[in-house]
Amino acid sequence: xxxxxxxxxxxxxxxxxxxxxxxxxxxxxxxxxxxxxxxxxxxxxxxxxxxxxxxxxxxxxxxxxxxxxxxxxxxxxxxxxxxxxxxxxxxxxxxxxxxxxxxxxxxxxxxxxxxxxxxxxxxxxxxxxxxxxxxxxxxxxxxxxxxxxxxxxxxxxxxxxxxxxxxxxxxxxxxxxx
Length: 178
What we know:
Layout: H1 5-26, E1 36-41, H2 44-60, H3 63-71, E2 77-84, H4 110-129, E3 133-134, H5 138-147, E4 153-162
Helix pairs in contact: 1-4, 2-3, 2-5
């Protein structure tokens, strides 16, 4: 059997994005407590995410968000990584409070944020090892959060994934709002 790379590329990207999800899951976590949530979107859900992000950009007057909305349309998959809110009870002070008990409502536990960062790094390292094109985008995570796709999370990071001759997520022009 003969396989042309163009005919199997999409399937390969999806399989690699699944490996990115596994890398995020197995990344180290504070106190070994797994509060990470990971999902992947493809197809029409990418357009839904793009449209939502574009609307957020328009509403906020932020051209960069609209640029990101256009940009993710080049993705074959988007990996979303977030965490559930859970204080790690380390009394580390990184959130600004002296103790976890004094942390203000709505202020995330810094360890949760660090866990997401480590998971994102692990996922992106996997993508790099597999020669996929990616970019870490807070804006994409924000739009996914607004869509309610991961309601147990209080913040998300999005990673669009592609395999093309040039990474479509870099060398981007800033979109100016009309």
